[in-house]
Design a protein that fits this description.
The complex is a heterodimer of chains A (246) and B (313). Chain A has 6 helices and 15 strands. The radius of gyration of chain A is 21 Å and the shape is globular. Chain B is α/β, with parallel strands linked by helices. Chain B has a 7-stranded parallel β-sheet, with helices on both faces. In chain B, helix 1 links the parallel strand 1 and strand 2. Chain B is elongated and about 60 Å long. In chain B, 57% of the residues are buried. Classes of the chains: A alpha/beta (246), B alpha/beta (313). The interface between A and B is large, with 78 and 98 residues. The structure holds flavin-adenine dinucleotide (FAD) and adenosine monophosphate (AMP).
């Protein structure tokens, strides 16, 4: 089975977010990057588990610059066989999906796995766009994925519940919690990652359908109102009459 | 110029986020709704109340298969000549809107939180709610998916004309084997009131007092990540940067410290109440109302107060 896992980088989760150039650019100064948690914990690890039981290969693909190489090496250390980086700055979901589709269309991948969303731009966009480009089914927010022969069985989140679905490979899947457990790379993995292939591919220069023009930070909260733990009638009164939420 | 709004009408009733999407569309142009499934003509005509002038309904298929819906909405976009297509950014919108945007070559604004600014840009949450970004669309057409609970449905009165429609949706290639919807539970992403608890509750056997409060309010329950990771609560209750992001009107957090990754999933809540024994807990900085106290005493007391309030109102 040939598995392709889409890996992106994201600012470490405790990063303080600031902007420069008149609030038009995210200030990358001093920001530490991690592998986007959904891509690492769920998509990549489930891909590796399926390879371990069914045989095959796990390739990662990233649209990004050499700034992404550290997170790509992390994915290799966790166990991917090889990596591809499409050499351009990722700024728009359509651009990213077009680049990946262009690479994947002749690759005969059985399974393309993505994370549920990137934790910086939170778009949940690339998976559906990629599936449409490749004319494949897209199973979004999957919490379970099993493969037998050419058939996949998945659990996916729907409003108010879970749906079990079946589809023939190839498919595109976005992975959410429940799919797998995080794996910590060991020393051997980290050493091996250094010599695994990371192929850098030229960009196909797709359109960028959207752009971020500017950013703003939310208004700071006013100070908390403390309430006597003995007096919950008071809280209910405030929630009803002041906050008007009950 | 007509604005096309997709809504899901496959359930027993039409959900509030569908009304939000129509209200949003009405602020941009003349709203045509497209839907499939089994809702009656009368129910669909009623969407006029929120400003829809016409409803196109494809009765040739039921369900929410993302490829079928994409094809149907693409056909409707073409036949109505719409330049703006609107979805609610719920689980269906998240799967379909990106697909459709590629199919009709339209820039996608995913998770819009407000109507377009005067310069045409549209605000979305970025960095897990730590900031807003303003998205510019560089194509002629655009697809907007609206973050649920970002605007309130507005009733403007009226009745929509209902027309049957052939959306060329084709066949579904993904087959649904089973659908599980726990009875009676309020789905977390839609809940307006949420009661959440963390490691401060000590163990799964203590969740009775959390559920009692939720029940008295008619609220959904949620939890912090370690609570779900330890198997005390199901995964779908995990809120935060790596769980569900929610924006209810009221979020009550008991025994949760308020780590930055937790806050990222709940900072869109209108009102936050924090119950924690430690007055230094970081969550108090993000709270509107705070109770420095023991959740094991405060939660039952609050439940009683809510019951008393409900009985007299
Ligand atoms: C990459 C990454 C992603 C993450 N994503 C998420 C996420 O999405 N969601 C999430 O929640 N976390 C996430 N975390 C974990 C997060 O950093 C915190 O560890 C977690 O939120 C802490 O959970 P907690 O508040 O339940 O537990 P603790 O931090 O242990 O807090 C327990 C709190 O309960 C209080 N308490 C104790 N006893 C009582 C009592 N009797 N009554 C009242 N209060 C009491 C304590 O004072 C304390 O403040 C993430 C971490 C990382 C590194
Ligand atoms: N630059 C990128 N390179 C490779 N994969 C990406 C990139 N950006 C996003 N993805 C994948 O698409 C998923 C959804 O991202 P998003 O649509 O930005 O929320 C992520 O979890 C990744 O799996």
């Amino acid at each position: 089975m040939k598995i392709l896992v889409c890996i992106s980088k994201a600012p470490e989760t405790t990063t303080k977010i600031t902007f420069t150039d008149g609030n038009t650019k995210f200030d990358k100064n001093g920001v530490k990057y991690i592998v986007n948690p959904y891509d690492e914990w769920y998509a990549l690890v489930r891909g590796l588990e399926l390879k371990e039981t069914n045989g095959g290969t796990v390739t990662t693909i990233t649209v990004g610059t050499s700034e992404d190489d550290a997170t790509i090496r992390k994915a290799l250390a966790i166990g991917a066989d090889d990596a591809v980086r499409i050499d351009t700055e990722a700024v728009d979901a359509f651009q990213v999906a077009s680049e990946i589709a262009n690479f994947a269309k002749d690759g005969e991948y059985d399974l393309i796995l993505l994370g549920k969303e990137t934790i910086d731009y939170n778009g949940s966009q690339v998976g559906g766009m990629l599936a449409e480009h490749l004319d494949l089914p897209f199973i979004s927010l999957a919490s379970k994925l099993g493969v037998e022969g050419s058939k996949a069985t998945l659990d996916k989140e729907i409003v108010g519940g879970v749906q079990t679905v079946e589809a023939n490979l190839p498919i595109v899947v976005s992975c959410a919690k429940g799919m797998a457990e995080q794996r910590i790379p060991n020393m051997r993995g980290i050493m091996a990652a250094r010599s695994k292939p990371l192929k850098v591919v030229e960009s196909s220069n797709p359109n960028k359908n959207t752009s971020f023009e500017k950013y703003a930070l939310p208004e700071p909260k006013s100070a908390v109102k403390l309430i006597d733990p003995e007096d919950m009638d008071k809280l209910v009164d405030l929630l009803h009459n002041e906050a008007k939420v009950i | 110029m007509s604005v096309l709004v997709y809504i899901n009408s496959n359930g027993d009733k039409i959900a509030k986020n569908a009304f939000e999407a129509i209200t949003y569309g009405k602020k941009i142009g003349d709203v045509v709704v497209v839907t499939n499934g089994k809702a009656t003509d009368a129910t669909l005509a009623n969407l006029g109340k929120f400003g829809a002038s016409k409803v196109l309904v494809d009765r040739s298929f039921e369900g929410i298969d993302e490829q079928q819906i994409t094809r149907m909405v693409a056909t409707a976009t073409e036949s109505t000549g719409s330049e703006t297509v609107i979805f609610s950014n719920d689980l269906i919108g998240k799967a379909v809107a990106p697909r459709l945007s590629v199919r009709i070559n339209a820039g996608l604004v995913a998770g819009a939180t407000a109507v377009p600014e005067s310069d045409g840009t549209i605000a979305v949450n970025v960095f897990s709610g730590k900031a807003f970004g303003y998205v510019k669309v560089n194509t002629d057409k655009r697809v907007i998916s609206l973050l649920p609970n970002s605007i309130q449905p507005e009733e403007v009165g009226g009745e929509a004309s209902v027309e049957s429609f052939e959306g060329s949706a084709g066949e579904a290639v993904v087959t649904v084997k089973e659908t599980k919807k726990p009875e009676g539970d309020i789905p977390l992403p839609e809940a307006e009131l949420v009661v959440s608890a963390g490691r401060g509750l000590k163990g799964p056997e203590n969740w009775g007092i959390v559920e009692d409060l939720a029940k008295s309010l008619g609220a959904a329950t949620a939890c912090s990540r370690p609570v779900a990771d330890s198997g005390w609560r199901p995964h779908h209750e995990h809120v935060g940067q790596t769980g569900v992001a929610i924006r209810p009107n009221l979020y009550i957090a008991a025994g949760i410290s308020g780590a930055i990754q937790h806050l990222a999933g709940v900072n869109g809540s209108k009102v936050i109440v924090v119950i924690n024994t430690d007055e230094e807990a970081p969550f108090f900085k993000a709270a509107d109302y705070g109770i420095v106290g023991d959740a094991f005493e405060v939660l039952p007391r609050l439940t009683e107060a809510v019951k008393k309030f409900k009985a007299s109102n």
